[in-house]
Design brief:
Length: about 350
Amino acid sequence: MAEAERRPSFGVRSLTGFARRALRSPVPQMAVLTLSHCRAYALALITVPASCAVAFDLEGHRGARGLAPENTLAAFALAIDLGVTTIETDVVITRDDAVVISHNPSLNPDLVRDADGRWLASPGPPIRALSLAELRVYDIGRINPTSAYSRDFALQKPRDGERFPQLADLFTLAKTSGKPVRFNIETKITPTSADTTPAPAEFARRVVDVVRGAGMAERVTIQSFDWRTLREVSRIAPDIPTSCLTIQSTHMDTVKPDASGASPWHGGLVLDASESLPALVKAAGCRTWSMFWRNLGSEQLREAHALGLAVLPWTVNDAADMARLVDMGVDGIITDYPNRLRAVMASKGLALP
């Protein structure tokens, strides 16, 4: 028996539920274990896997949005060069059913230029209404300098000529790099998407098909605010982990119930007065809870860990906020600036990927 799977001589009933699951489960061959996994092995008094040497999940948001044009191959290549553990990105589906990478379901005038190099004057059509060939004529290699968005990312270096990549292109880039980077892929769908996206089941199936076709199932997590796709992924591909996204803010709240008493974002699950949000995430089948970072409290973090969930706040760009969250005990951070997070990790004595 391998060192990582060696059992202790005492019974497991005295351990926490998560520690018992750690004992029963082999170490994932391609996965980077979270701090929650490593704590569980330590609690169970078994040999901590070598994978725990790089346990904190350093995730590059949209590649490395603060430094390179978001969701482009240039941003993904930079994220890999910076040594991220995971690339976080977003996918939508074209009219001819290509799975392409874009945060915005429609063409965004802050980011998109036409074939003549002119910025779009207004939001363009849904990507679902365009074929892959039609989509590929647009340039997404820089931010419109007249937009408010450009002021938020003054350090971003343009790369003219970047096109909307397919998810398969990202996988090819990663394979070529030779780095064991993982992928956190968000399905861009909402309860009100209607015909601007495929139905949740079809959306989930198409993403899973690309993941499996690239042989990347062991390196992928699928995340979403709209848990309908996540529940479908768990049904058709239970080996691919899912991450439940949440936000509670004035401009967007995916937790607040509507008139029916349930949030339309939660795929039919109901958060009642006797239940916590981490418990609902667990009930949805997610292995990770990924929340807007300002929404995370210490008690919720402890409860999520007790339930065996990894906790992954997004999108954290200030070094002081990163340091505070590391001290709280989160399992990773999604950031536009992987370089800043690496510096914080080094200052905290965390192993760097």
